[in-house]
Amino acid sequence: MTDAAHLTASSTLVARTIAVPAQGLPDLLGLLPAPDAHGAAAWVRRGEGVVGWGEAARITTEGVDRFAAADAAWRSLTEHMVVRDEVGLPGTGAIAFGSFSFAPDSPAGGVLVVPQIVVGRRGDAAWVTTITAAADLVPPPTIAEIRARVAQPLPAPAVAYTEGALTRRQWRAQVAAVIDLIRGASVGKVVMARDVRADLDGPLDVRRLLSNLGRDYRSCWTFAVDGLVGATPELLVRRERGLISSRVLAGTIQRSGDDEADLARAASLARSSKDLEEHEFAVDSLTRSLAPFAASTNAPDAPFVLHLPNVMHLASDVTAVLAGPHAQMSSLAVAAALHPTAAVCGTPTDVAAQVIADHEQMDRGRYAGPVGWIGADGDGEWGIALRSAQVDADSRGLRLFAGCGIVAASDPADELAESDAKLEPMRSALSS
Ligand SMILES: C=C(O[C@H]1C=CC=C(C(=O)O)[C@@H]1O)C(=O)O
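# ISC complex -> structure
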């Protein structure tokens, strides 16, 4: 293990995966046993994915090497693990859930959490994995036993919102300053984010929040890792046996609530030169970042419109194959190479990152960083932590985040409204 990673694990770990009947399996998010956001791990889309709880091991990293250090520590941990996997699908056997800061100098750093129990589902297959110290081996629990241990839901607390690092007016002024920089040709595109505080009058039950997100945002990846929760529409990378896929988003229009009007809005988004430019920056930056280690990269000529309940996005699904000496790169290593994309930072990356540091006036923490899971073979899925919030250590408050791609044709008031629309998934999941 590298010096940069800190590992807590009791001893040699044993991962055991057994098949369980997929038919009649309850909603994965409903199997999380406890309300606590910091003990829950989830990566679920359309009812499929993985949830986990308990902690068999934790790897923490920081700084510019936070991805490489975590990747090396995970490899070393899994090399010494005993794995008995009777299912053999992505997400079975040894698995860690991870989340990484957007900025290299953020104190939020990176984390990989290896749960003690994982339940997963993919198509007609479902499984339970236990990861325990060799000395503590017990048979994996049945789904009935897992259900029996699910604690009663907590009552929904009242939520009070306050402004974050910047007031709405201050943020708009910063966006205006960034537009001036772009028009002066200092930088092509910058993604400006803002935060909002939510204070609760009782502890959060993360299971309700996640279930609401999973129900309302079915085409998004609902996630929870180490207190970072959300439902992201954007997949940074999926690595499955050497095949890379990614869903790039950039370019947004808000929904009106009227289906017919929204169809007209979708058509205008697909024609909007401002949004198409913003999108092109994002796709170009991804394909450029993939080029050194991937071949057969396939990006569509034109984006499609992704309809979500709150907004519509221009979206492109890009695929590639890890090539030659890079065929063994893990999903986390690929995520590290792609982060930060123009969808969350801008173009050129270094200049945009500096503009963000100068103008946002906040630490993004793990918002807009990679979030997802990795298996022992390096396969995994990493989303970009958007439409998300960081839950306070005492579970009585959250920091919500949203950002907008700023280009020369942007308007500060429109961007503020767009950021409000992007906060909506977390707000409604908190209140319903
Ligand atoms: C930065 C965010 O969204 C990005 C992803 C999709 C569309 C975006 C946009 O149109 O501005 C943003 O680049 C966010 O939701 O916080």
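# post-check
The chain has a mean pLDDT of 95.
DSSP finds nine helices and 24 strands in the chain.
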